[in-house]
Amino acid sequence: xxxxxxSLTINSRRGVLTTPGAWRRNQNTVAFGGAKTLGxxxxxxxxxxxxxxxxxxxxxxxxxxxSYGYQINNLENKRSELISQRQDLQVExxxxxxLERVQQSSxxxxxxxxxxxxxxx
Length: 121
Description:
This protein is mostly helical. It has a domain at 41-104. 58% of the residues lie in helices and 7% in strands. The chain has helices at residues 40-104, 106-110; strands spanning 2-4, 9-11, 16-18. Strands 1-2-3 form a three-stranded antiparallel sheet, with no helix packed on it. β2 (9-11) and β3 form a beta hairpin. The radius of gyration is 51 Å and the shape is rod-shaped.
């Protein structure tokens, strides 16, 4: 037999006395709230932050690429300077070897040194 009151429930058969909001048998004592939702302003702020982060990542990649391009340009300039210097040294080497060959040739060996030299004033 059950008696009802406005704020008290008495179940005489089971001997349980409960008030509204009190714990009862075979019921969970922890109630989990629903998922928290974000408002439109928070969504907008998050979207702007994500776009800013993606923009910064893009800028770092572009900057890194341009710095590599700058280094490559410097190395190519140095390479062309070294190639030019090498060609100049090859010409100088050929010139010096040619003079040495002329001095060691049989015709140069038969030449004689003049006894006296006079210059016109």
